[in-house]
């Protein structure tokens, strides 16, 4: 368990946006060094997120862009 707070970031759905979000994760970790940072992101992003040392874990978001899928929410 983390010493500080847990921060949940709703990650972007697109590859380029996820890469650019690295700056956000680094800034959050710099501002809150003891916080655990988790990301809610599509499953395809897992290999990318695993390379980001600031992220503790990824929560897979199974819904596709534009899909309402109210029963899944």
Q: Which structural traits does this protein have?
A:
3 helices; Rossmann fold; alpha/beta; single chain; globular; 73 residues; 3-stranded parallel sheet
- CATH homologous superfamily designation: Glycogen Phosphorylase B
Q: Number of helical runs?
A: 3
**Uncertain ranges:** none
Q: Shape from CA axes?
A: globular
Please tell me the CATH architecture by its name.
3-Layer(aba) Sandwich
- Give the class-level CATH name: Alpha Beta
Provide the structure class.
alpha/beta
CATH fold call = Rossmann fold
Q: What is the count of β-strands?
A: 3
Number of domains: 1
- Helical residue percent? 25-40%
Radius of gyration, in angstroms, nearest whole number: 13 Å
List the strand order in the largest sheet. 1-2-3
How confident overall, as mean pLDDT? 88
């Amino acid at each position: 368990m983390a010493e500080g707070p847990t921060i949940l970031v709703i990650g972007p759905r697109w590859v380029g946006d996820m890469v650019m979000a690295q700056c956000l994760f680094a800034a959050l970790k710099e501002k809150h060094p003891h916080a655990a940072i988790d990301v809610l992101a599509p499953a395809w992003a897992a290999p990318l997120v695993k390379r980001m040392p600031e992220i503790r874990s990824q929560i897979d978001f199974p819904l596709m862009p534009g899909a309402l899928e109210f029963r899944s929410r």
